[in-house]
């Protein structure tokens, strides 16, 4: 699955280039590169430590992260002749979250790396050492990819080690697993993995646990049973699917907290005899409800959130396409069901595709969030042209069904047209997070890929549910008006919201790419409109080869899509507009306002989020709210996420959300309150009481 996420990330980067790949500076786990001796001897070795200090509530990961997480990566820049061995990891700890077993470090820890110096270096030679490291920092709710570049300079000398530094490195070494000194044996039988480890009967045991370095050997979250039979220790646990194919297994046998043995095991017979040492591990029972419970709750929230999207403002422009698709079914049972299933398939596949792309980007270290695709002006321009074409079609300028390629997207039978209607609905409707969606999508970003994609599928299923119900419940379908001449008039009327949507997309394009970008987008829409008008004229004369006229228009539109680029960002210090006298969001400014003892209202928005804009006009930017906030000296900070600012993205993630809108209220000295995603002036003025 990790390779799949990487492949998705790479493909999306090549096609869209929507994200900047510059790594952010670490904020939650602080790294430091320390040398045991700053004057190593030529031809000798020197040990370096990458000391990691997690913030309170945060943790890092072992070389095998377990069910979730990412392996740390180390990239060295070394002087000629100097080589670095693989990093050594201390014995990890277990952390069960939502039924997932994580192999982590919750306190301070250090990776030890041995450098070998070439012989013949003159004393006094300077050796600049640089390490670029990437790791994952997590809490029990959110994960943030972090990175850092550390540098030190060594000077060739006599290898002297300071006594204080020696004690520090000795403590770090004591936490590393010691070599077992002999090989173990493992076998897979009856769905269980059994590991036999030769260990003297006199060895003192605490809480024994086997941490496999070889992936695919065991079910990480399954309980482990430990038995002792003389000088043989046996660990039995549920096997993973690939365990029977493995030829060798590496891992660490923890004998107690922070104490363990590094071992290698080969296939062989392992006896199940012996007395059980301590109670069977019950890690699976930790975490609220386990993975299944968490997945079920998140899927339900996503389903309900998708259902509510049907009444959100950002969904209204595609309601016309639904209405026409329903009317086109004509009341026939088979046709209605096929259209409903095709529409649902289009929505679910797009939601899962967007979810997979999002997970891939995040696996590559990006701070991407939900609706990441709308942070690229090229995607906005593509949507502008698509929505304009739909609006022209609804207005009667041309007929999709007469076009060769159009017939495949809007087939007269209705099934293919319903599929692409659903796909468009999902692509346009999901930029904003409505009620219930925030929690569900936030959970999806920390669950395993398959579980996360299930949640994204639930979101799509919820969005498609009303149309699906109409397709399969005849009583509901009978309430629809009968097909007739009204459909053509209704179609012309419904072109209006599509033109309004196109106008809104042009405005968003202007916000992202500047006036020049907006002018380019409108010019592309004009070229497309002229081509479609010419096609419509030819259709009226019965010319079935008119689709060729779209070739030059499509070439011009594609050229404009490829050349549009984001406009230079305004100064970060520029004040935000509005009667609330809001300031641009930054964590430093938020901390300063909290130190002053002031209440703070923070909201995160984006130009492409229609529900954000509705909330701003209907609730936030209201005079009564401004008066109430001024009376209580409530400070207002606004975070603009239109261009996918990674700093804002990480802050949103830290509150268990994956997109906008997000509204927070900080009382003096208190934790932030997450406000509903549908606001009213009364709800906001009540905060200032």
UniProtKB/TrEMBL annotation:
Is this entry keyworded Membrane? Answer: yes
Q: What does the record say about its membrane topology?
A: Multi-pass membrane protein
Provide the alphabetized UniProt keywords: Cell membrane, Cytochrome c-type biogenesis, Membrane, Signal, Transmembrane, Transmembrane helix
Give the residue range of the signal peptide: 1-22
- The protein's predominant localisation is membrane
Q: State the Pfam families in the record.
A: DsbD_N, DsbD_TM, Thioredoxin_7
- List the record's Gene Ontology CC terms alphabetically: plasma membrane
Q: Which GO terms describe its biological process?
A: cell redox homeostasis; cytochrome complex assembly
Q: Indicate the transmembrane segments per the record.
A: 295-319, 340-359, 379-405, 417-444, 450-473, 493-511, 517-535, 547-565
Cross-referenced PROSITE patterns: THIOREDOXIN_2 (PS51352)
Domain Thioredoxin span(s) in chain numbering: 561-689
List locations, semicolon-separated.
Cell membrane
InterPro entries assigned to the protein according to its UniProt record, in alphabetical order: Cyt_c_assmbl_TM_dom, DsbD_gamma, DsbDN, Thioredoxin-like_sf, Thioredoxin_domain
Which GO terms of the molecular function aspect are on file? protein-disulfide reductase activity
The name this protein goes by in its record: Thiol:disulfide interchange protein
Q: Which organism is it from?
A: Sphingomonas cavernae
